[in-house]
Amino acid sequence: MPDDSAAARAAAEEESAFSHPPVDPDVSSAYGDHPDQVIDFYAPKGEIPAGVLAPLVVVLHGGAWRAPYDRRHITPFADYLARRGFAVANVEYRRGALLPGQDASGGQDASGGRNASGPVAGRWPDTFDDVAAAMDALPALVRAALPQADPRRTVVTGHSAGGHLALWAAARHVLPADSGWRVDRPPPLRGVVALAPIADFTTAEKLGVCGGASLQLLGGDEHFATRQPYADPALLLPTGIATTLVQGRTDDVVPQAVADAYADAAAKAGEVVGVTLLEEVGHFPLIDPAADACAVVAEEIAQLAW
Fold this sequence. Notes:
Layout: H1 4-17, E1 27-30, E2 38-42, E3 54-60, H2 75-83, E4 87-91, H3 126-145, E5 149-159, H4 161-169, E6 191-195, H5 201-207, H6 213-217, H7 221-231, E7 243-248, H8 256-268, E8 274-278, H9 292-305
């Protein structure tokens, strides 16, 4: 259990990250018929040399794949990236539904323990259907919505559960052959920057990350083992795509052990994954425009994008 000072620091970090008002996009585009099948686009606002198109950053939000947490909480981060000269696509996707009788808060156990009583995490297969569909639709949508963007210089980033989805989106070409989400070639990405990602489901479940969210995402104990090869990034290696994990050392939501397990799995598969560890940083500063950690994240993205 974290001591009082660590808990207070983590609470302050979360409060700061969620203190920013949502930022409206420049334009939104649907990639399907469901209300959650939408992408918000932010045009680059930084100074870009004449005739140079901006790299595209695809953002996948976190929130343990649960219904109460949508893309709005990460819009300040999307705007922050846009103000640093990136074109940004903030992707929404279907998440787990509330249980009967729950309000929007979900009644979650703030400790994040395995027995947390909150909304179901994710929808199988809908969450994965949506991320695959969004990535497939993105080139055409970008051409229409963001003519300032260069889809050839695309970096995918995501936070927490969104970090999982970012890694998964970059690994569809190594999915099992019978997967409907599999693509024949590696996606045309410059790279992935995964922020405190739920990147290894076995380790995450051992630690009870987000109240057993990865177990719920795959449909519970009955389906976990059979669905894990189709969903767990640590089993979808090597990808051949440049990948960096950014992790706060004091993160008590998705602990460093999860990132370490993914990096170890990559190494065993013959792939080198970059891991940037930030001292005295928890879970939320990575997406907080007021935090120094957010500038580190933007620089990691820039190193791959430019």
